[in-house]
What we know:
Layout lengths: L2 H17 L3 E2 L4 H5 L2 E6 L3 H11 L6 E4 L9 H4 L16 E2 L12 E2 L21 H11 L6 H11 E3 L22 E3 L9 H10 L17 E4 L4 E2 L2 E2 L16 E4 L3 E6 L3 E2 L2 E2 L3 E5 L6 E12 L2 H11 L2 E2 L1 H6 L6 E2 L5 E3 L3 E9 L6 H5 L1 H14 L11 E5 L4 H7 L14 E6 L15 E8 L6 E4 L10 E3 L6 H18 L8 E4 L9 H11 L1 E2 L29 E3 L14 H17 L2
Parallel strand pairs: 1-11, 2-3, 2-16, 3-11, 6-7, 16-28, 17-18
Antiparallel strand pairs: 4-5, 8-21, 9-10, 12-15, 13-14, 15-16, 19-24, 20-23, 20-26, 20-27, 21-22, 22-23, 24-25
Amino acid sequence: MSDRCVLILLALVLSVVQVLGHLFQGPTKEVLERTYDVIIVGAGAGGGAAASRLSENPHVRVLLIEAGGSDFMNLNISVPGRASTLVRSQFDWNFTTVPQVGLDNRPIVYPRGFVLGGSTAINQMAFCRGTKDDYDRWAKVAGDEGWSWKKLVPFVRQLDRMTLPADRHNTTGEFDPSIHYNGTVPISVAGFPLTTDPRVINTTTQLPDQFPFNLDYNSGNTIGIGWTQTTIYNSHRVSSATSYLAEAWNRTNLDIVVNTRVTKVLPLGYESGKPIMRGIEIAQSASGPTHTLQARKEVVLSAGSIKTPHILMLSGIGDAAYLTSKGVKPLVDLPSVGKNLHDHAFLGNSWLVNSNDTLDNLRRNATLAAEALAQWKVNGTGPLGLAGGSQLGWLRVPNASEFFAALGAEDPSAGPTSAHFEMITTDGFVSKRVSPPTQGHFFSFITAVISPTARGNVTLNSTDPFDAPIINPNLLGTEVDVAVMREAVKAARAFVAAPAWSDYILSEFGAFGEAHTDEELDAYIRNNTDTIDHPVGTVAMGKGAEGALDSELRVRGTIGLRVVDASAFPFIPSGHTQGPTYILAERAAALILGEM
């Protein structure tokens, strides 16, 4: 697809909501009376991609149901620099976790997308494919070489395409063009220069052993520091709605219904003792009417790592003893549903800097912020076209075998191409725990535990499908994860001690600057860590009883029911989860079409 074609596609998306005949704001009579081959629940990365690929076959009629609305081109969604405004907005499910033991018993806000595009419409837009070792571990756990990196390459090639950044600068040396293809999702490197950019890159030449430069972390080997690739095109956010679904808008065999929740999956009968789960129940409110729909071939749950297990448990699919205790009649005894929840822990670490030219100015100066928005509206340039950080680092702890052995643990990463922790650069103050200072200018490293060992769960709050489930990601729930975060903070300190920062860094800020011993660091970490918003694994594929799904993502013990979202991941990728969810959906669609 040429840049001109993408521009035309983007223009179409900007107006399509008002003219699309197959977008319904609720379950109309027309929808309820139609027959669909596949019904997909949830329009995020998994559901949006699967709906698009399945509807490429004109003989397959697809219904895509989204609980949220259709305003996926809202200004706050479209402007990358406004991503933080989307948390606790009308585009967020507004979940909150239970108190996290590993975070000093603090509950935390748990954002999930509630709009066409799902969490791809509210995330920080980092695009990562994952690593060779990540997928090879999936293949081993699932007992299916189809999930290996080598076998997934055809699906990776269908996924992304590199485009020019907003400022059209020369991107030579910022990514490897030979590993990017003509895929559906346009991505780019940062389109607005920051004064810290050369300092970050220079550090990789000054401290190459500890912080090697990585030309392109999407090669399958993430280790090193490199330029962030983001789902941004022409300075606009790219979501599954503006990419995959945009390609499918005019297909007569795809209907999309928004503002509608799937409350449970229904059995239509039995075959060989297994329930045929091709029915769904839908409603728009807790007090409103319910309706039922049936799929001829399959129901696909793509509601995400929180809502997919929630729907399954409400449908009687889960741990039978637990469901009985909650007043739900068990249909399929599948104890692993809702378990294995894991996530990447997030910690903002900030330094005062010798500069008055940082992104802190946008937060404090309303006039400057208005000027930046006006500039973005005119030509897409300026600081509001930036996502979370212009560079990413993926690193392993030194002497990993000895490090984890001393903790009485095995190396939790998938292998040498996969990181233990991540470092994200930000030209300004960052914290999910501390309010931004009213004075001073900052540089921050976000550190993240990228191969966590802690596991949590999703459980029922009640049998009312409009009640949020109980969410426990168990962040920093093991001493291993705390130790890895401690190493990440130490690495961030070592990074800014390089000569490249000697005239820039002034001092560490706040509680960060008061934490020196390991004990002090651990206390600082527990009191300031949050989530990076990557929940996975709650309906994971795997061999035997340990897997809720088989290797082709079918729910065990059922017929006609599949899961296509990050809940299917047996292990979290050592990277951000948007890209791997798209990859999973690409293969899932091929598997489904192969059975049509």
